[in-house]
Amino acid sequence: MTGRASQVLERIFRALGSSSTPLKRTTPAQVLVVGFAVVILIGTLLLSLPLASSSGRATGFVDSLFTATTAVCVTGLVVVDTGTYWSLFGQLVILLLIQIGGLGFMTLSTMVALFLGRKIGLKERLVIQESLGQLSLEGMVRLILAVLAVTSVFQGIGFLILGIHFSRDFGLLRGLYYGLFHSVSAFCNAGIDLFGGFQSLTSFAADPVVLLTISLLIVFGGLGFAVIVDLMHLRRSRHLVLHSRLALLVTAILLFLGTVGIFVLEYGNPHTLGSMGGGQKLLNAWFGAVSPRTAGFSSLALDKMLPGSLFLIMVLMFIGASPGSTGGGIKTTTFGVIMATLWALISGKDDLVLFGRKVPVLNIIKGFCVVFAALLLVVGITFFLTLTEKADFLPLLFEVISAFGTVGLSTGITPSLSPLGKLFLVITMFAGRVGPLTIATALGRRRRTPPAIHYPEERVTVG
Question: Closest by alpha carbon to 34, among 438, 322, 386, 414?
Answer without folding.
Answer: 438
